[in-house]
Amino acid sequence: MSARTHTRPHPALRGDVDSRLPWWALALPTLAFVTLLALILNPADAHVATAEPGITHLLERAQQLITR
To answer: What is the DSSP string of 6-63?
Structure first.
């Protein structure tokens, strides 16, 4: 015996849907891409931020574990 398929009673309306993106939905990924691309092209410009010694030690330890 075959199973009965359910269909929608009314088709979805597309007239009231706003499909425009906000400005930041395109600007933020573009900014992140350009920033990362600039760091890849010239890594000498990437400076380490001064942080707490505990955080610095934690990041160094994480880097050591990743490189093993």
So the answer is: P--SSPPP-TT---PPPHHHHHHHHHHHHHHHHHHH-GGG-PPPP--HHHHHHHHHHH
